[in-house]
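We close this part of the discussion by returning to an individual protein. Part of our work consisted of pairing the sequence of a single chain with a tokenised description of its backbone. What the numbers capture is local backbone geometry rather than side-chain detail. The amino acid sequence and the backbone structure tokens for this protein are reproduced below.
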Amino acid sequence: MVAAQVLLEVRLLLRNGEQLLLTAVIPVVLLGLLTAVPVVDTGEYDRVDFLVPGILALSVMSTAFTSLAIATGYERRYGALKRLAASPLPRWALLAAKAVTVLVVEVLQVVLVGGLGLALGWRPDGAMAAVPLLLAGTAAFAGLGLLMAGTLRAEATLAAANLVYLLLLVLGGVVIPFGQFPDALRPVLESTPTGALAGGLRSVLADGDGLPWAPLVVLVIWAAAGTTAAARWFRWE
């Protein structure tokens, strides 16, 4: 049942042009444009080495948070979740299918972004240490996305999810180094899910460090808080 629901979720995603734009086109276009054009000062990093980890973090956010929140919010509004909850498919299986779908899309995003990065001269170090960060980031964003989708109206979820996406694109260390922000604001930005994921991935993939525990702990805390709140307050109709 979970496999069948995953296939359904993936087919629905592939038919949705807006979701494909958000999850596939925008990250790749941003990486290509910002690597080619020196819009921001990346400091000691080459542009592609700085941008690829940030765009990977943006990709996780776009899929596990923005896309998941919007799609689930409208499924809830149209009664699809209510009907599925009354079907033989258990609720845990529906949530598991959504989680697996998110992971499938993220694998495709990593291939696209990583492939373009390699073509542009990116040479990652310690790529395997990035996997726990990506998984923890996915859990954090998915919990927050489901919390938003399960508590707000669909229109409010659409507006709020896109607003958060834009704010964290600018403030989450994706394309602008934290060093360019005021010192008092920097710890706050680094403690956001996007900031922790982008900073952690950059530490691994650009600096060649081992698994950074501080960003990982931040992501685990966000994941625990988001999933607990979603389980408590998510409404199926």
